[in-house]
Amino acid sequence: MAIIKIEIENENKRFIITEGTKEIVNNPGLKSFLINFLGAEITSNEIFLSYTLETKEDILNKLHKILFRYGFEEKHSEEMDVVLKSFYQEEENFKIFSLQAENIKNNNCDKNDFENFINSLSEYVTHRTLYPLQLLSSYHLAFSQNACNFSVPGSGKTSIVYGAYTYLKNLSDDNPKKIDKLLIIGPLSSFGPWENEYLECFGKKSNAKRLLGKLSKSEKKNYLYSHNPSDVTLIGYQGVINLVEELKSFFFIGI
Q1: Are 64 and 128 within one domain?
Q2: What is the signed CA dihedral for 185, 176, 159, 242, rounded to 10 degrees?
Q3: pLDDT 10s digit of each residue in the chain, 255 long?
Q4: What total of structural domains would you count in the chain?
Q5: Same domain, yes or no, for 167 and 196?
Q6: Angle formed by the axes of helices 132-144 and 78-105, to 10°?
Q7: What are phi and psi of 17, to 5 degrees?
Q8: In sequence order, which ranges of 26-77 are alpha helices (DSSP H)?
Q9: One domain, residues 143 and 196
Q10: Residue 72 is assigned to a structural domain of this protein
């Protein structure tokens, strides 16, 4: 079994295969995968795999799987071992987290935590009472912070989102799940219902900001970079195209 040594250059954001490169080059399938799917740059003695913050884990995972598939054994530099330890710990944490989220979806959740969630909504969602299944769906969304809801129209999806939003907004400042704003991307026809539902849930008019075509691009950018945006920001699908970087920054301002 050939041994492949993998190192990492954090400053240059790339993985480097420094041993076993000859065996890789002589394996057409593996070589092709590294070049075509991982963007590898192959030199006479080394193989470079560049990554970004967003692609780092994905490239590492695919590299590990493809080397295993072709029967290669890995060894790592000390820096690489640190990266892998963190990677596998995150994978394990995600499995545990996913299981907990699945249990919530199946109405098998921590009763005390769910009761705290219900009490929070009773305190802050003063003009709308969610039905039991809506409460569970809202709790699942607040817990997972990554969810999809494809319920039929009229099932209360907007209220479910507002329930999760107000719960997360009113967490203590030292809670890592705490949020302070809500970004809604959708058709222009959905803006009115989102604003109306805010009034129905909280008993007061929303200060929602609509990022529409009548605003110049510079005005939209200034708003997204501001430190005091509205609680609710609404933007159409087409409006996202020219504001991708600004929207990314929008989520991190104030952190």
Answers
A1: no
A2: -10
A3: 689 999 999 899 999 999 999 999 999 999 999 999 999 999 989 999 999 988 988 998 899 999 999 999 999 988 888 888 887 787 787 788 788 888 888 888 888 999 999 999 999 999 999 999 899 999 999 988 778 888 778 889 999 999 999 999 999 999 989 998 999 999 999 999 999 999 999 999 999 999 998 899 999 999 999 888 999 999 999 999 999 989 988 877 654
A4: 3
A5: no
A6: 180
A7: -90, 115
A8: 28-38, 56-69
A9: no
A10: yes
Q: Is the pTM of this model over 0.85?
A: no
Classify residue 182 by burial, with Cβ atoms within 10 Å: 0-12, 13-18, 19+: buried
Angstrom distance (rounded) from CA 34 to CA 27:
11
Same domain, 162 and 221: no
Asked, for residue 129, whether it belongs to a domain, the answer is: yes
Question: Is there a single domain that holds both residue 185 and residue 232?
Answer: yes
Domain of 206 in residue numbering reads as: 180-255
